[in-house]
Specification:
25% of the residues lie in helices and 20% in strands. By secondary structure, it is an alpha+beta fold. The chain has one domain: Fe-S cluster assembly (FSCA) (GMP Synthetase, Chain A, domain 3), CATH 3.30.300. A hairpin with a 4-residue loop joins strand 1 and strand 2. The radius of gyration is 13 Å and the shape is globular. The termini are far apart. The relative contact order is 0.23.
């Protein structure tokens, strides 16, 4: 059985190429729903027009599918990112 924790751990390997931190540490993964088929991963970007956005979405999709062994889809939410969403904002010099 697939669980959100396993997928979340797999997503720690997906790095934001500009900030050199993984998408989980940055707080970009907002929700993982393993009940529907395909699995749904909801995320945000650090900036609305992130040039690496499409690449990161694809990397997240592939990592989630590999961890779950099931199809996945990624939805980019309109929510605005801020450093308080990070696991440890001091990693980027905040606070």
């Amino acid at each position: 059985m697939t669980n959100a924790t396993d997928i979340l751990e797999a997503l720690r390997k997906v790095m934001d190429p500009e900030l050199n931190l993984d998408v989980v540490t940055l707080g970009l993964i907002r929700e993982i729903d393993v009940e529907p088929n395909p699995i749904e991963v909801k995320m945000i970007l650090t900036t609305p027009f992130c040039p690496y956005g499409p690449w990161m979405v694809q990397q997240i999709k592939e990592a989630a599918e590999k961890a779950a062994g099931l199809p996945a889809k990624v939805q980019v939410l309109p929510e605005q990112w801020n450093p308080e969403m990070m696991e440890d904002p001091s990693l980027l010099g905040f606070y």
